[in-house]
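pasting for the record
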Amino acid sequence: MSSWWPPPTASSSARRSRARDSRSSLQGLMMPDSKRPRVALVHDWLVQQGGAERVLKCLHEMWPDAPIYTLVYDEGRAPAWLRDCDVRTTYIQRWPGAKRHHKLLLSFMPRAWEALDLTEYDLVISSCASCCKGVLTRPDATHICCCYSPTRYVWDLYYEYLAGAGAIKRLFMPRIIHKVRMWDFLAAQRVDEFVVDSDFVGKRVEKFYRRHATTIYPGVDIDKQEVRDTPEDYYLVVSRFVGYKRVDIAVDACNRLGRKLVVIGSGGEDEERLRASAGPTVRFLGRVSDEEMREWYAGARAFLFPGMEDYGLTPVEAMAAGVPVLAYGKGGALETVSDGRTGLFFYQQDADGLCACIERFEAEGVSLSRQEIHEYSKRFSEANFVKEFRAFVDKTLEERKA
């Protein structure tokens, strides 16, 4: 193994101190138990680790006694922190193969979500990029949907998903999609308030659901992340391996330029193909611990973000480590990365575009130091998200009382 592969080490005492400070700051924002309504959290499915699951963790820390309802739960692939939670699944959990092939069950999801009895809860918060916003609540209950996107494979990315789908999906999706699309629109009308993670998503919520949405940027635990003045000689990607994230662009670009690339993540239909395409300077690490992840962030020369994301927590995590971000210039990245200051954009979404961006970065860099990039990232902190989301919930509940 080449000498550059081992992750740089960090001070364990410094990490423990930052973690204590972070927990204290969040606890100070919590509402006393006596004032809390009965709350339920709802999440599409728990079979992976991604940005949506990190937001769910933050919601769980705000309402630690709230059960988490989900379509299916795979303990082996879901985040480890869920093992201490009250996770409740739909009846689809009992179906053979459902945990692995839940996306093939799109036509069954509406009935499964509507079968959940949530009548005991005063406040339901759905964490949704698919169908879980369709749960039924009491007329006097409040349903706030944290919407990461209108259901992608139902609306704006339907034709892209269909073109890349396997034979089974291509056979059945055109037959069911119209009814699912109608149900998804009606389900969105049951939501009392929408919160979105970017203005980019908010515009699509208005377009497809005809609903207003309030933007509250999800945050990361800024204070846990170490900042190093001198990076290692590698670029970094953190992602699941699904088509729209375009990890292939990063792999192809680093193959061409001979640049060292570390890819962290697992899961998705493109994983095998991407691993096979990797040259000698590209290494796939799979899943790593949070501590290892922070170390890889801290040592990276720059973070590569070639997909068009609705928001994207990983660029924020990179900037928290003081790491510049080289991102495709569309979508949520336009709201988090400052072009020329904390990163650079490229506008041709292919390996040629990213190669040119990498070469420009190596020649010109960005205007802010790594410490200044870290300071910039604080506007996207977890503490800010908790404060703003709590205030939004309180305001919504107060208005509905009137």
